Every structure is written in C-alpha cells, then in structure tokens.
Amino acid sequence: MTAAQRLPLYDLAFDFLPTIQGVWWHFTDFLIYFMLLGVGSLVILSTFMAYRSQRKRPVIAVFVLKRYFKTLIVLQWLRIFSFIFTLLPGSSVQCLYTPTEEQLQGPASDLLQGQAPSEGNSELWAPPETLYDILFRIDPATGCGDLMFSSHTIFAVLCVMIVWDYFPYKGTKAAISAALALLVPLTLASRKHYTVDVFTSLYVVPIVYELMRLKMPDTDTAEEMQHRYGLVFQTDKEDNLKYAVIVGNQSFRINEDQLPADFKEPADLTFTLPSGSPLHKGKSGPGGGGFDGPYIHLRKDTPPRSPTFEDGLRNLVPQVSPEESV
Q: d(Cα 54, Cα 218) in Å, to the nearest integer?
C-alpha cells in the first residue's frame, strides 16, 4: 500500500469520542471474553437445569452451540471476503502511519506512488512476513486490515441473539444487552474499527442469524430427534407421572420441561359408567342428577394403578355430593 492508502480515514465518531489507550484499550477484548464466558456458562448450566426458550422449546446445549457456531462460520466467511477484496487503512494505534517530513515537504504525488516507506510505521507495526506467520500466527487483538466488518461486534451481537432466543432470564438479557451497548462506543474510542464496520455488524448479524434459523431450524421435535439421533421420548413405565428418554438400550428419566414441544402424552385414563348409573344421565351441578357424558376422566395425578369405580367417583370434576346424585 502507498503512504496515502495507509493514512486513516476520516470518521465523524472519532471527533466526538476521546481516544482511549493503555489498559482501557484492551477493555473491549475483556468485554467480549465476558460475554462469551456468560453464554458458555448458560450453555453448561442447561445440562443441569431444565428450562424452555422464548419459543417454548426445551433448551438443549448441543443445539445452542450448533446454532452459535454455524452462524459464526457464515459471518466470518462474509467478513473475510469483505476485507480481502477491499483494503481499508487501520486506525488503531499499531496500524497508524505517520508521513515523514520529507514526504510532507515533497510533492503530494509521492504519497500516491510506491510502497509506503517504513519510517512512517508505528512502533507496534508487525505485519506477517513469512508463510508461517500468515498461516499460524494468531493475533486477534492487534491485527490491521481486517476491518470490514467488525469481528468484535459479530461476537457480541451473536451472544445477544443467542441469549434472547434461548435463555428466558430477564436479568441475563439485560446484562448481555448492556455489555453490547458499552462495547460499541468503546470499540470506536479505541480506534479498532470505523463506524461503518460496527454499524454493518449490528444489522448483518441479526439478518444472517434469523435467515439461518428459518432455513435451518433446530431439529428438536420428538419426530426429528428420533429420526436423526435415535432418541425416543415416552412416559416412564414405572411411574406414569414422569417421563423418560430412550438412548440406545438405556432409559433415562427426565422432567416435563425437557420434553420436546410436540410431545403428546397418552390419552387420559377413562372408563364407561354402567348404563344404569344415576350419574349417567342428567346435568351436573346443583339440582342436576349427574354428569353429562358417559365417561369419567381421572385427574392427571391419579396413581398409576388399575382404576376402580370408586376412584372415578373420587376424581370427578366437578365433585358431586351424595344428595345430588340421588
């Protein structure tokens, strides 16, 4: 790149935000790590705690991680194609280029021709020089040129999308949203990205996330999990009030919040009243002679044993007193 191409672009936000340096310059990186750690902790907790997402589906850690990394891969590929074909001069401290006195006193055309002299480079300027550096040197904090669009904002917005989509905690949503709101001005104040880099990420990430969720939804229905992973959900044979999932040849008990959204319980236990029963005819309630319909439905919490006629009488809803049944 020529000396002119190395000069930072003008950004209106830089005029309003002071330049931060030192420890505060690294604060955006710490904030990203905090957000990633928070989402990771929620994913780990989902293996021990059962709760349902905003879409009333059980939160399954594998599906959350799959959603995050699938979306991240697509976004990073879009970002790579963007900054490979359009080179922007970095505005961060390690990327700054300061023209020498000789360049400033000479004709302006000198700034537009040839490679920029190394005398104008920052002391922190350290581009990769060998193939090994290009392939294996990992430096996520002090790189130059990978500007469009902001990777800091990609990670942050993706964390916000995951939390709002899967984890139904108001406090967690507020914390992750506040972290994003703090990250945006700090990223600009540290001069790691231009406003266009950050702003583009703020709308590209939600668009890609929602498109991928619509085109590639989580396979978390009972039918899909049985077809893809061999998981069979059913009522526990030992206790009709609990549920189990069959994995291979083993059965594991689960609670109701871990059931797929489309899981259907077996039909309520019913039996027919004798035709001569006084409850078979008439209206239920005060002044009535019985209960409309030929069936008595047991409550959901009825113990799992063979029902008797007395069980049906005790579990009628509404209850019918002996005087009303005469």
A: 14
Cis peptide before 149 (omega within 30 of 0): yes
Please give the biggest Cα pair distance in the chain.
Answer: 114
* Interatomic CA distance for residues 46 and 49, integer angstroms: 5
Q: Bridge partners of 116?
A: none
What is the phi/psi pair of residue 231, to 5°? -90, 130
Beta bridge partners of 296: 271
List Cβ neighbours of 91 (8 Å cut-off, separation of 6 or more). 8, 9, 11, 14, 191, 192, 193, 194
Q: Where are the domains of the chain?
A: 3-215, 222-258, 267-326
Q: Provide the pLDDT for residue 298.
A: 39
pLDDT at 270: 45
Supply the Cα-derived Rg of the chain in whole angstroms: 32
* 171-229: pLDDT as tens digits: 999 999 999 999 999 999 988 889 999 999 999 999 999 999 999 988 888 888 888 88
* Model confidence at 169: pLDDT above 90: no
- Name the burial class of residue 278, with classes exposed (0-12), middle (13-18) and buried (19+) by CB atoms within 10 angstroms of its CB: middle
Question: Residue 160: which residues within 8 A CB-CB, separation 6 or more?
Answer: 176, 177, 180
Indicate the pTM of the whole model. 0.72
Q: Residue 184 burial (CB < 10 Å; 0-12/13-18/19+)?
A: buried
- Residue 117: asked if its preceding bond is cis (omega within 30°), the reply is no
175: closest CA among 39, 21, 307?
A: 39
Asked whether the beta carbons of 147 and 24 are under 8 A apart, the reply is: no
